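FW: tagging you since you asked about this chain on Friday. Here's the raw sequence from the shared folder, copied in full. Didn't touch anything.
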Amino acid sequence: MTLGWWAPGTTVSSDLEIEQLHSDLKQLYDWSIDWQMLFNVNKYKVLHFGFRNVHGIYSLGAEVLKEVDEEKDLGVIIN
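HL: got it, structure written out here
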């Protein structure tokens, strides 16, 4: 699993990177099922920004992660 590579602010700019991220998310989800530590998918969001960012659809299990245009974190709005 290479999920540590997908840090906040990471830009996914190719189909290969999207496939790798999907694979990492599936492994993370499978791990959470195995260890009975489910994620609250409603707390996760996808923020697309940048000109080269490929707008993929991301999910954990059967739940699609919500896409947003902006997000507030520590009082700072990112868009």
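FW: Strands lie at 45-47, 59-60, 63-64, 66-68, 71-73, 76-78.
HL: agreed, and The chain has one domain: 3-78.
FW: great, closing this out.
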